[in-house]
Design goal:
By secondary structure, this protein is an alpha+beta fold. The protein folds into 2 domains: 95 residues, Phosphorylase Kinase, domain 1; 218 residues, Alpha-Beta Complex (Aminoglycoside 3'-phosphotransferase, Chain: A, domain 2), CATH 3.90.1200.10. Helix content is 49%, strand content 15%. It contains 11 helices and 10 strands. A 5-stranded antiparallel β-sheet has the order 1-2-3-5-4, with helices on both faces. It has a 3-stranded antiparallel β-sheet with strand order 6-8-9, with no helix packed on it. A two-stranded antiparallel ribbon has the order 7-10.
């Protein structure tokens, strides 16, 4: 840390009075709170990424900030760079923002977060990156859907003889979710997905990639976005799916709730019929179930929580199927 402080002072021209390490996952992420001798506060962060990926993230943050998106602001070095290197990894300094994570207990909390992400998606169109910035987009959904169907099928085959009650309960419902996934894949093949994702990037939307309540801070009565390490060009359903799944972990899903989510989203970011159709397909696909199996999230969930999650995901699939058939 001593050498890092020295490097930081050289690049920014201030004197570090105090540096408190907040997170230090070796090779994964490092975050420290920095206080300077003149009282300024910053957050210093590295994800140990390649320069190419880090450059895309930090320029995305800068361009979004210029368009009025509330987020943690990267601070340029004395020579105008948005990041610096230490021990071979790029580090970014951000203005320190204080506040509390956005609540997600009630429907009004969810809808407020939907408004925020809809505004972000809308403002993310038309960004003009420097020529030396490589733009990132998501894996082709057709390839991703096939892989995720394969993952669920493999899990079912591997545990078909299990005596574990929790796995047995999952197996009771997994065939249904695999059928849903296969139908979603067929819907996707017949959709305008290829045409939409082949458009120039400046006509597409960015997604946050990890949009949940702990990555949104309430500061001065505004929602401030954080942690853009998964940012990429993709369709809005990825952020909608993430925050909706977080809400329904402890709250019930209903068609009324879903309609309110889409209505709230479109007030800030209207969708074409073709785009909405593809978003519905993606929300129909059982991403949450596949992720739970692939990441073994079920190991940490008790049976009550497991039953609740599966019940809500089934209700969501049945709701979305009404829009797709």
């Amino acid at each position: 840390m001593k050498q890092l402080r020295h490097t930081l002072e050289n690049h920014y021209g201030f004197q570090v009075k105090r540096a408190n390490v907040i997170k230090d996952n070796s090779g994964s992420s490092f975050v420290a709170r920095i206080k300077t001798s003149d009282g300024q506060k910053f957050a210093l962060k590295t994800l140990y990424l390649t320069e190419k990926r880090q450059k895309f993230i930090v320029y995305t943050e800068k361009l979004l900030q210029q368009k009025g998106v509330e987020l943690a602001k990267p601070v340029p070095t004395q020579d105008g760079r948005l990041y610096f290197f230490h021990d071979g990894s790029p580090y970014v300094l951000y203005n320190w923002t204080s506040g509390n994570s956005h609540p997600l207990k009630k429907e009004k909390h969810l809808l407020n977060m939907i408004k925020t992400v809809a505004r972000f998606h809308k403002k993310s169109k038309g960004l003009k990156y420097p020529d030396d910035v490589t733009l990132y987009s998501h894996l082709d959904w057709k390839q991703e859907y096939r892989q995720r169907i394969h993952n669920m099928q493999n899990w079912r085959h591997y545990y078909e003889q299990t005596t574990d009650p929790k796995k047995q309960y999952i197996l009771q419902h997994l065939s249904y979710f695999i059928k849903v996934a296969e139908k979603a894949y067929q819907y996707l093949l017949k959709s305008d997905y290829d045409d939409i994702v082949s458009q120039p990037f400046n006509e597409q939307t960015l997604v946050h990639g990890d949009y949940h309540q702990n990555n949104v801070m309430r500061h001065n009565k505004k929602n401030v976005l954080f942690d853009f390490e998964d940012v990429r060009y993709d369709l809005p359903s990825r952020d909608i799916q993430r925050i909706l799944s977080m809400y329904t972990r402890t709250n019930p899903f209903s068609q009324k709730l879903f309609n309110n989510v889409i209505r709230t989203y479109e007030k800030k970011h209207p969708l074409t019929l073709n785009m909405k159709h593809i978003i519905y397909i993606d929300l129909y696909f059982p991403h949450i179930i596949e992720h739970m199996l692939r990441k073994k999230k079920y190991l940490k969930a008790d049976m009550k929580r497991m039953k609740h999650i599966i019940k809500q995901e089934r209700k969501k699939a049945k709701c979305l199927e009404k829009y797709l058939t």
